[in-house]
Design a protein that fits this description.
Blueprint lengths: L1 H5 L12 H11 L4 E4 L7 H10 L8 E5 L4 H10 L3 E4 L4 H32 L4 E5 L5 E4 L1 H5 L17 H11 L3 E2 L3 E4 L9 E11 L2 E10 L1 H46 L5 H27 L6 E3 L1 H15 L4 E7 L6 E3 L1 H17 L5 E12 L14 E10 L29 H11 L3 E7 L3 E9 L7
Parallel strand pairs: 1-2, 2-3, 11-13
Antiparallel strand pairs: 4-5, 4-9, 6-8, 7-8, 8-9, 10-12, 13-14, 14-16, 15-16
Helix pairs in contact: 2-3, 8-9, 8-11, 10-11, 11-12
Length: 472
């Protein structure tokens, strides 16, 4: 009779012929509601209801008890066992269906409420900032982690985009209209607690009550950026220390040339006064240039990415390397004509090339040939770079550093770019050189290709996307 009443209403009806079977069916099917008789073989309805409530997976299923026992004590016992409602027999079919609709609707509201409470708790206690906003940026909800990123006492703004610089806000507005998650952006944060605050903002357009809202995730990168700058500075000082020995040797040679010319002038034995003065001037300029480049490298600070000609940056490094590495090393610099510009940080490109040159020198302990080359590279078919990077198709400018040294053994390759991994003797290196290279190349949306053969040599090719000027 129950089946004939409820199936036309759209319910799927499962039946059990005893109390133990009812528990088994409920455990297996997890129904939306249980209609439970009191008098049943094997286990009465009160015990079934008690065991349903004791099971954490079934405890919230609504239970409607149907029974011919219409006394007050039976009803109280059923409610104490955990029943949500009590309907005596014989029952009215309209009342039964009405109560079922009400109890299932209330249970679904409860489930939605609990789900929403869990979602709000997850947002509130997330370790990173979360903001839910309309498409125009009007904030619907923000969590405590985002509030902690802002300056104390800062009045809350109503629009999320006001917390970002105008170019970043404009780009996020465009991206937020695309379905699904989009690539994150690094940006300063307006009204931040830290004056140099840097955050990573990602967004996704998600459905919400018949419309789309934007889910922003804001990660604070400030401390990580500070540590990265300290690491880069330490690694730059390490390179400077490695160059110092060679630089001192060359400076001594320069000073010797100056001293010799000055002594000849003092003895008035120089047949050509202009020749000796010219030698002194040339040597002085050469020494000053070398020391100036070393000083600039030691003081180098990261700057903004700007359209740059990589050939000019690499040529400066090639000149410094040629001056400081010594006569055992032949340094050659090659470049293509008419190379396009790339959007890079010139200081970091300087650091990348210098790291690779120092590594190449160390791979040639008895001297050898070092070739620094700049050339255009077009990626049209899939290319696998180091660490599994897969660069998108397009035009790139590559800086290659090639040596004819010892090469890299196969067992070293998997750990080559790990921070602090080094094959050099203790005290001869920190293992930060190649780790710094890959981090700085990736930061500028580039990739690294590696060719190496034991006993033949190694070539690192760092490729950076060609810059296209924005349309005006």
């Amino acid at each position: 009779m129950l089946r004939s009443l409820l199936v036309p209403e759209g319910y799927q009806v499962l039946t059990a012929h005893s109390g133990p079977e009812a528990l088994e069916v409920a455990q297996r099917e997890s129904p939306d509601v249980v209609l439970l008789d009191v008098m049943m073989p094997g286990m009465d309805g009160y015990e079934v209801c008690t065991q349903l409530r004791a099971n954490p997976w079934l405890a919230n299923i609504p239970v409607l008890m149907l029974t011919a026992l219409d006394d007050r004590d039976s009803k109280l016992r059923g409610l104490e066992a955990g029943a949500d409602d009590f309907l005596p027999k014989p029952y009215d079919s309209l009342e039964l269906r009405a109560r079922l609709r009400t109890i299932t609707r209330l249970n679904r509201f409860r489930q939605l409420y609990e789900e929403r409470a869990r979602l709000e708790a997850a947002i509130a206690h997330a370790p990173y900032g979360i903001v839910l906003a309309e498409r125009d940026g009007s904030i619907l909800q923000r969590n405590e982690a985002f509030t902690r990123m802002l300056a104390p006492g800062q009045p809350p703004l109503t629009n999320f985009y006001a917390y970002l610089p105008a170019p970043t806000a404009l780009l996020l507005r465009e991206r937020s209209d695309r379905p699904g998650a989009v690539a994150p952006l690094e940006s300063p944060l307006n009204f931040a607690a830290a004056p140099d605050a840097v955050v990573e903002v990602s967004c996704a357009l998600v459905p919400w009550q018949g419309r789309g809202i934007v889910h922003f995730v804001i990660r604070d990168l400030t401390e990580g950026k500070r540590l990265e700058q300290q690491l880069q500075h330490s690694q730059r000082i390490e390179l400077l220390g490695q160059l110092a020995g060679s630089a001192i040797h060359d400076v001594n040679n320069i000073l010797g040339a100056i001293q010799g010319s000055a002594q000849l002038l003092e003895m008035k034995e120089g047949a050509d006064l202009g020749l000796h003065l010219g030698q002194i001037m040339t040597s002085t300029q050469r020494g000053a240039s070398m020391l100036r480049q070393l000083l600039m490298f030691a003081r180098g600070e990261d700057s903004e990415c700007e359209p740059s000609n990589l050939a000019g940056v690499a040529a400066e490094v090639a000149h410094m390397v040629k001056e400081t590495f010594g006569a055992m090393y032949t340094v050659e610099f090659t470049t293509e004509e008419g190379l396009p510009q790339t959007l890079v940080d010139a200081t970091q490109i300087h650091q990348i090339v210098m790291n690779l040159c120092v590594n190449a020198r160390d791979a040639m302990p008895d001297g050898g040939q070092l070739v620094i080359g700049i050339a255009r590279r077009t990626v049209s078919t899939p290319v696998t770079a180091v660490l599994g990077d897969s660069p998108p198709a397009g035009d790139y400018v590559g800086i290659s550093v090639r040596d004819n040294g010892t090469g890299i053994p196969p067992d070293v390759l998997p750990k080559l770019f790990d921070p602090f991994f080094t094959t050099k003797p203790k005290g001869k290196g920190t293992g930060l050189g190649l780790a710094t290279v890959i981090r700085l190349v990736r930061r500028q949306k580039g990739f690294v290709l590696l060719e190496t053969e034991v006993g033949v040599g190694t070539c690192f090719n760092c490729c950076f996307p060609v810059w296209t000027a924005p349309a005006v």
